[in-house]
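Lab notebook, page 48
Experiment: co-folding of the full assembly
Goal: obtain a model of how the components sit together before planning crosslinking
Operator: M.T.
Materials (sequences as entered):
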Amino acid sequence: MVEELVATRTTPLSGTYGGSGLARLVIAGDATRLSVRAGEEALGALSGALDIELPRAPLSASVTDGGYAFWLGPDEWLVINEHGEEMIPRLQGIEAPFSAVDVSHRNVAVTVVGPGAAAAINAACPQDLRPDRFPVGKVVRTVLGKAEIVLFRKEENTFRIECWRSFAPYVFGLLDQAAKDTAY
Amino acid sequence: MLLIHCPYCGEARSELEFAGAGEAHIARPENITEVSDEDFAQYFFMRTNPKGIHYERWRHIHGCGRFFNAVRDTVSDRFLKTYKTGEPKPDRAEFEGEGR
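Observation: model returned without errors.
Model output:
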């Protein structure tokens, strides 16, 4: 009798909480993620297959229930599905040329919530986070300290930060300290 | 902090997100196999290195990832203009006497 062993994948910092009363840090749950590169002619078919509109306007995002499509560059998008649905199989049969890579386990998302969220992020991020310059729904790929992040303003005081998993302890540590500093 | 306007993102962003990529508007010879060593060296190694207005390539490496071109004053380190790759080289008269 052979016992079947199943390896379970753990994400860094899984279930970790941190921050302060003004800026709480929560590690977002597992999600499937897709890095999409495509030209104009494939966008319609991709948006239909993924069931989310790939935004054309720079620095904009589409949001559905549990889904995000972030504009990263003129032909590059990051698509996230928080329900964990496999997205690659849906893309079979699209004629126009495109590239889609499953990067679900490459990224870790940290959610920063609270009235001090912008101040905590600004401790190490050069973006202008004033609401008129960085409105709700805007997304940028930028830097936080020495790590590259994708920063999305979900609500006035809620930000989602996507970083690569090997940078996650660094990003979380930096935000944790900054969040504690903003409390004073 | 030096701010650089990215023509693809359409807004000014911190220099931390950018990487310089040398002089712009250098075309690779079409007949590269027939080019003499001297001419190849001229194309491959020699750069203008001016004092004043300089046309250069930059990459928004931690942003949209795109290469674009910029006109920068090497004396004041001021960016005079940025424009998308493939757009025509702006005439330098455009920037003369601009109080750079």
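Interpretation: The mean pLDDT of chain B is 93.
Next step: discuss with group before ordering constructs.
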